[in-house]
From TrEMBL:
The lineage of its organism: Eukaryota, Metazoa, Chordata, Craniata, Vertebrata. Gene3D superfamilies: Ypt/Rab-GAP domain of gyp1p, domain 3. GO terms for cellular component: cilium; cytoplasm. InterPro entries: ARM-type_fold, BROMI_C, BROMI_M, BROMI_N, PHAF1/BROMI, Rab-GAP_TBC_sf. Pfam families: BROMI (PF14961), BROMI_C (PF23440), BROMI_N (PF23431). The keyword Membrane does not apply. This is Protein broad-minded. Interacts with CDK20, which promotes CDK20 stability and function. Interacts with FAM149B1; may play a role in cilium assembly. Coiled coil: none annotated.
Length: 1203
């Protein structure tokens, strides 16, 4: 716009006039200049023709011409940058490009030029407007003089006059309207006055001095017998609600509410009674309902904008509403007639109390409502409770067929517009139910209880009300007719009550206070209890009611306090029969349903849905460690597996539908029903995998492969894993992957392949709309026949040019592969396997060798880059064994300064000495001597048990006082003696001893696997570092392994474990120790337990790794000795307590890494810095007191039980 001609100026003026003419009505209706500006600023949001205005098109084209090329460049640059990192959404791109554009020089120059040009145009238009205004005023004066004699103040009804379009409201005109609205005036005069009022701008009406008087006049006119006149007043009210500012609508609303309040109090007005009902075709009823409906519409809209205005306005609206709804006319003169109160008319237009829901949503309005209910209008709450009680009593006393018959009678077409008294009471009950349900969500709302009712001796407590709600689920019959047949289901008592209880369950604090108590749970369990006793559950209990009950029980079980209540009752330490608690009853009922040991609803089509609902409830219970412990005796996994096998057989027998056959639809429906039931059963079985011991039970059913396939299918469809589960697929997948059978199931289902494909896509493919060519996960030509074409071959072992060229993002993908290798090799079993199969150390050393540059003939330097730094870290990690103080791992990042990476790189072994710690080697012989002296106190006793207990006491005393002296050869001697005595005590032995007679000659020809040989080398290397082993140790350890293998083979000839446990291949450390670690962690360190589940990572997985490799690489040698000694001296349950102590020690780190979403990597890679077994000894003794009986009993029960 550098060259702004006169023609351009004229064109812009025309465009602006068109824009202002189009929005004239909106601007002139604004009460102030600020409001007019707001209207223009938000014109794009409110005007559907916004983009059709010529001025808007002009601006768009001007911006495109000036900034278009720069915007395109910024978008291309952003897209290119994002290809190397994480994907960003559309909103992120827009925000970035907009910010860069607004900060550019071109944008600032464009805005400066545009402002200057528009100022010229606007000033020109203002000057022209002032000239036109002056000419217009002169012309008006001339016309006024000519018509002064014939002017009549009554002549203001010419609605077609063009002067009305520029009509200005003034004080005299409003006084004239007030006079004309008087009831004594002719009908036509009053109509015309009201018409003029509706035509005037609301801001002019409000600013008049007579506004208050007008408001009173309009309110009084609402009772005018002329229906047309009263309807026009309502029209003015509706228009005011829509177009006027809040303080004006507030006055209109309060005046309307006050009018209705006086209307219901007046004995002159004919108001229907409960017995006569409401005929909505009656003109008087229609007018009354219209007023109430208008009031209700404003009630629902007001919360969206009253927060922006003074609090007193909102308080006046709330109080006027509550005052109206509390109105009750004195009916002492009426013996048998009950006049309908305002609330009955409100519920007809808002049965679900939407207005109250919206008022309670915001804190500000909720505070006002609750304060007024407590101080002045508690009668509203009392009336709502009274209505619920009366409806329940009606359900108890009346027969089902009577009410159903009345419902059919109400559905008669001749009575479509008539509501009987009973129907009104039912709609009022629905409104009361919704109102109370919303009230109970909030603490101050619950404090309004107990409620004292008339004709009732005892007050209704919060618990009493909830028990009543629950009883309504299975007592109430089908609901009476509502506004239309389509709403019958939505307004059923059971459905409405269930909806309210579900909302309460979803608010944890509310659920704990309202539902997690014995009377409520007993009310939910009552029909189940009666059904199992063979009696009728309740007068009208149906399949639908049982489904609702199961859903509420499942939601209660999802809350920690609710689960505890279901498992143990209100008092966990009481002597009451544990089998009578809720969890036991639910499990018993489900088992009877699954085993078809109960005749309930025999042949019903909804029976599978009832079973499915209670399966979901039990899943919520046995999906936790403590819940599984309680429900194990019922063998639900076996019942579910048997039901699934039976269903699977039935589904295979269903004939394939033949096209054109009449039975196609019936067969198809039957097939869908069976498939849904089969999936329900698989879901129930799959939830056993949420805990280590549950996974063992699932493995025993033989259905683990089908369950994992079912899980993968839901994962592929992006479906939730279960209705009430709080964790995602991550927890289940990590649990399943912890066992060999589970890993096989994951592989065969396609789960692992899908995860690898997704990983490959994220690393190499990028967005679909960015790249045209996608590299394949497996190259066309074989690269290396010795490696599988999987993630190891493609991302880690990049030992050829062909592999490197096959990657689009070589460095990024290879670094990821090296990071993955670092995490995987933290498991020493996996490290040995990778070394045996792929020689990863050699490959990495060769890669480092190739990354050397020769600066001179005798000097070679490693090239420092991301790959060489990562390889150096991995090589040190996989070659050195040691705890946090025993080995030094080089960092993965470069430092600032002249020497960014001071750590020496290497391309051959041995490692540089700087990675070996010198301060932790076993050189202090004084410790052995000190411990040797203490051994003298452990004198042999005639009573073996006494000697064992004495050793335990002394060990505990030393661990608390001088833990550092418990090490070295004396500790070995003590352990050997202690173990010898344990083996001679039958009560201390898990497995009986066997005689071993093999000699070196017998095992001489035995061969060790390559993995075992590498393990021996690793062990000897660590032992030499600690000065514990000598050069001959490798040969000695080889003989030890050969003898151990022969001994274990001999021992396996005797069966000490149950057959199904052996066949499962799941180690007792996992299904017993790790199971109890998860169970205790939830109680002892709940924040850590929650962090694991939020991360999609099971605590049992990392504990299994810690324990199976005896904390190598996680603790220093002395702490490992303390761990082993503690478990031997004090019992195997200390294995569990030590892991709990570690989690307690790591709590802050775990919470932090949960936020950074790298918890699993942190726990696998990082040593346990600062953890000492002795520091947590007193804490572990407390754990022993609380949990030892249960843990040791279960640990002993892993053996084959003698019969």
């Amino acid at each position: 716009m550098a060259h702004f001609s006169g023609e351009d100026q004229a064109t812009l003026q025309v465009m602006l006039r068109q824009l202002f003419q189009s929005v004239k009505e909106k601007i002139t209706g604004a009460p102030s200049l600020e409001c007019a500006e707001e209207i223009l600023l938000h014109l794009e949001e409110t005007d559907e023709n916004f983009h059709n205005y010529e001025f808007v098109k002009y601006l768009r084209q001007h911006i495109c011409n000036t900034l278009g090329s720069m915007i395109e460049e910024e978008m291309e640059k952003w897209t290119s940058d994002q290809n190397q990192g994480e994907e960003s959404g559309y909103d992120t791109v827009v925000q970035h490009v907009t910010k860069r554009t607004q900060e550019s020089k071109a944008y600032k120059e464009m805005m400066h030029s545009l402002k200057n040009s528009m100022m010229v145009v606007v000033e020109s238009m203002i000057d022209k407007f002032e000239e036109d205004e002056m000419r217009s005023r002169e012309r008006q004066r001339k016309i006024q003089k000519e018509k002064s004699r014939s002017y009549c103040t009554d002549n203001c009804s010419d609605s077609d006059s063009s002067s009305n379009q520029s009509y200005k409201f003034f004080q005299g005109k409003l006084q004239l309207i007030l006079d004309q609205l008087d009831p004594g005036q002719p009908k036509e005069v009053r109509y015309e006055a009201l018409h003029m009022l509706c035509s005037a701008p609301p801001s002019d009406v409000l600013n008049c001095e007579n506004w208050t008087t007008l408001c009173e006049k309009l309110t009084a006119s609402l009772s005018d017998p002329d229906p047309v006149f009263s309807d026009r007043i309502l029209k003015f009210y509706a228009q005011t609600f829509t177009l006027s500012p809040f303080h004006m609508t507030k006055e209109i609303y309060t005046s309307l509410a006050k009018y209705l309040e006086l209307y219901f109090l007046s004995r002159e007005n004919h108001i229907p009674t409960v017995s006569t009902g409401i005929d909505v075709t009656n003109p008087n009823v229609i007018r009354l309902l219209r007023k109430v409906c208008l009031l209700n519409e404003y009630q629902k809209e007001a919360p969206s904008f009253w927060i922006r205005h003074p609090k007193k306005y909102m308080e006046e609206i709330v109080e006027s509403t509550l005052s109206l709804l509390s109105v009750k006319r004195d009916q002492s003169h009426l013996a048998s007639q009950k006049i309908l109160h305002p609330i009955y008319f409100l519920v007809l237009v808002d049965a679900r109390a939407v207005w109250f829901k919206k008022w309670m949503h915001g804190y500000c309005s909720r505070t006002v409502v609750l304060r007024l209910l407590e101080k002045k209008y508690k009668s509203l709450v009392t009336a709502a409770v009274q209505q619920c009680v009366q409806y329940f009593e009606l359900c108890e006393t009346m027969k089902t067929d009577e009410i159903v018959g009345q419902s059919k009678h109400c559905g008669n077409k001749q009575k479509t517009f008539y509501y009987s008294g009973q129907e009104l009471q039912y709609i009022y009950f629905i409104h009361s139910l919704c109102l109370l349900g919303r009230l109970l969500i909030y603490t101050q709302g619950r404090k309004l209880f107990p409620i004292k009712l008339r004709n009732r001796k005892d007050s209704v407590s919060l618990t009493d009300l909830l028990v009543l709600f629950i009883q309504l689920i299975y007592y109430s019959p089908s609901c009476p007719k509502m506004t239309s047949a389509a709403h019958l289901e939505n307004y059923s008592p059971a459905g409405m009550v269930t909806e309210v209880l579900q909302i309460l369950c979803d608010q944890k604090e509310c659920a704990i206070e309202c539902l997690c108590n014995k009377p409520v749970v007993e009310a939910l369990l009552q029909p189940i209890h009666n059904l199992m006793k063979g009696t009728k559950a309740a007068p009208h209990c149906s399949e639908a009611a049982l489904i609702c009950i199961a859903d509420i029980l499942a939601r209660i079980a999802s809350v920690e306090e609710g689960l505890t209540l279901l498992l143990y009752g209100e008092n966990m330490n009481s002597s009451e029969e544990k089998s009578s608690t809720g969890a036991h009853k639910i499990a018993q009922f489900l088992k009877k349903l699954l085993d078809e040991d109960i005749s309930i609803f025999s042949g019903s089509e909804m029976l599978p849905m009832v079973k499915g609902a209670f399966i979901s409830t039990c899943c919520q219970i046995y999906g936790t460690c403590e819940g599984l412990q309680v429900l194990i005796p019922y063998g639900l996994h076996e019942s579910l597996a048997n039901a699934w096998k039976k269903t699977n057989l039935v589904s295979e027998r269903i004939p394939t539908p033949v096209e054109g056959s009449d039975s196609v639809s019936s067969v198809s429906q039957e097939s869908q029903n069976i498939m849904a039931w089969e999936e329900n059963l698989l879901d129930g079985l799959l939830n056993f995998a949420a805990t280590p011991k549950g996974l063992l039970l699932l493995q025993r059913t033989g259905a683990i492969s089908e369950c994992v396939t079912f899980m993968f299918n839901r994962y592929a469809k992006k479906l939730q894993i279960s209705r009430h589960k709080k964790f995602d697929y991550g927890v289940l997948v990590t649990q399943v992957a912890s066992t060999a059978a589970g890993t096989i199931a994951l592989q065969s289902s396609g789960f692992i392949n899908a995860l690898i494909t997704e990983l490959w896509t994220n690393l190499e493919c990028g967005k679909d709309d960015v790249r045209v060519t996608h590299p394949r996960a497996t190259p066309v030509d074989p690269i290396d026949q010795s490696c599988q074409k999987d993630i190891i071959d493609r991302l880690i072992i990049l030992n050829s040019e062909a592999k490197i060229r096959s990657l689009f993002n070589y460095e990024q993908s290879h670094i990821f592969g090296l990071r993955l290798l670092s995490v995987v090799c933290c498991n020493l079993d996996t490290l040995l396997l990778l070394e045996a199969q792929y020689q990863v150390s050699e490959i990495l050393l060769n890669a480092q060798e190739e990354n050397i540059s020769e600066t001179s003939e005798n000097h070679r330097d490693f090239i420092i880059d991301g790959l060489s730094v990562e390889r150096n870290h991995v090589l040190v990690r996989i070659n050195l064994i040691g705890g946090p103080m025993e080995r030094i791992l080089p960092p993965r990042i470069l430092q600032k300064g002249d020497d960014p990476y001071p750590w020496p790189m290497f391309s051959s072994y041995p490692l540089p000495n700087c990675y070996l710690s010198e301060g932790t080697r076993n050189t202090d012989q004084k410790q052995d001597n000190d411990l040797g002296k203490i051994l003298l106190h452990f004198k042999m006793s005639d009573k073996q048990t006494e000697w064992i207990e004495n050793c335990r006491r002394q060990f505990c005393k030393m661990m608390k006082a001088k833990p550092d002296i418990i090490s070295g050869g004396a500790l070995v001697e003590l352990l050997e003696k202690f173990v010898l005595h344990l083996s001679e005590s039958p009560s201390e032995c898990y497995f009986p001893s066997i005689v071993y007679t093999a000699t070196d000659a017998n095992v001489k020809n035995e061969s060790l696997s390559l993995v075992q040989q590498l393990g021996i080398k690793m062990t000897v290397r660590y032992g030499k570092f600690l000065n514990l082993l000598k050069d001959s140790a490798e040969s000695d350890l080889t003989w030890v392994l050969k003898h151990c293998e022969r001994f274990l083979t001999q021992q396996q000839a005797h069966r000490y474990l149950p057959v199904d446990t052996i066949e499962s291949g799941i180690h007792p450390i996992y299904f017993c120790s790790a199971h109890y670690i998860e169970m205790l962690l939830k109680t002892e360190v709940p924040l850590v337990f929650s962090a694991f589940h939020m991360s999609g990572f099971a605590p049992s997985q990392i504990c299994l790794q810690w324990i199976t490799q005896c904390f190598w690489n996680y603790l220093d040698w002395i702490e490992i000795c303390h761990y082993i000694a503690t478990c031997i001296f004090l019992g195997p349950d200390y294995q569990v307590y030590i892991c709990i102590a570690i989690f307690k020690h790591l709590q802050q780190d775990i919470l932090q890494h949960t936020q950074t979403q790298d918890l699993q990597v942190f726990l696998k890679e990082e040593a346990l810095h600062g953890f000492r077994v002795s520091d947590y000894f007193e804490y572990m003794e407390i754990l022993e007191q609380n949990y030892r009986p249960v843990l040791l009993r279960d640990m002993r029960n892993i053996r084959v039980q003698s019969t």
